[in-house]
Amino acid sequence: MAAVGAPDLRPICAEVGPGARWVGREQPIFTTRAHVFQIDPNTKKNWMPASKQAVTVSYFYDVTRNSYRIISVDGAKVIINSTITPNMTFTKTSQKFGQWADSRANTVFGLGFSSEQQLTKFAEKFQEVKEAAKIAKDKTQEKIETSSNHSQASSVNGTDDEKASHAGPADTHLKSENDKLKIALTQSAANVKKWEIELQTLRESNARLTTALQESAASVEQWKRQFSICRDENDQLRNKIDELEEQCSEINREKEKNTQLKRRIEELEAELREKETELKDLRKQSEIIPQLMSECEYVSEKLEAAERDNQNLEDKVRSLKTDIEESKYRQRHLKVELKSFLEVLDGKIDDLHDFRRGLSKLGTDN
């Protein structure tokens, strides 16, 4: 895609290549480093890297044309040649990435910076240069309008010259003014020729850029073929890696099985040692079995004697319980008799009190 009206690189590039020097009427006013991207012309969505690594990106100012542009070169290839106009806008799309659209180049450039600070500085410089380009454009427009006015005045004064040939000395001042306007018109024509030369230069530059773009497209096709080959090789390597990973997985599974078998053998050996220890204990115990048998017989005899004593004690307890029941019964009977005796005694005492009151009453009467 050729850039329409692209600026000529010859005035500023003494040599293109590693370590290229930018000289002539354009001077760098700001320089930074960033990864350069361009929008995919087919999808208009995806970014395509224009540089393999971070490259130098510079703002240049053309003193003669009073214009600004962004230049970036990767090796022998010009990857950014964008003239800044007042209508352009630089947009930050993330903390380290920004972009702007160039209608002349019919593309969108993107820059990826290593830090947010670099992005901020570049954006601020873009806004500053944009304002300067706007002022320069306004001044150029004023010059064109002034030149147009001068041309119209010259055409009008052409008829006045015929009248001045018949006029008297009083019109001498007007004639001198007319001469001045003619000189201005001549200078304007010279400027037109100069602009035509500039236009021809830009067309030649455009043709060179078109050729470079075609060569770049051929290089892209070659890179695509190489990429396809590398992708196939990558797929083969991935398949081999998958096979090796599968083999490694099998080896790991075998190792896990061996580890489990070793652990099981160790457990069995530990159990065997425990069984041997138990067997030794049983053998030792078998040696003292006769003694234990005699002690068991002795204990059995003691137990039988204790059972007999226990039976006798139980009999005594039963007899004692019987005696206690009888004693409780007697106590209840005695309590009943005592209660009845107390009731009789209370009645007797009441009678005695009545009798004493009667005696006291008789003594008082007498």
Task: Describe the overall structure.
By secondary structure, the protein is α+β, with helices and mostly antiparallel strands. Strands 1, 2, 3, 4, 5, 6, 7 and 8 form an 8-stranded antiparallel sheet that branches. It is built from 3 helices and 8 strands, in the order ββββββββααα. Helices cover 67% and strands 15% of the residues. Helix 1 packs antiparallel against helix 2. It has helices at 116-166, 172-287, 289-365, and strands at residues 26-39, 47-49, 55-62, 67-74, 77-83, 91-92, 97-102, 107-112.
Offer a quick outline of the entry.
The chain is of the alpha+beta class and 366 residues long. Helices cover 67% and strands 15% of the residues. It is built from three helices and eight strands, in the order ββββββββααα.
Ordered list of secondary-structure elements with their pairings:
Blueprint: E1 26-39, E2 47-49, E3 55-62, E4 67-74, E5 77-83, E6 91-92, E7 97-102, E8 107-112, H1 116-166, H2 172-287, H3 289-365
Helix pairs in contact: 1-2
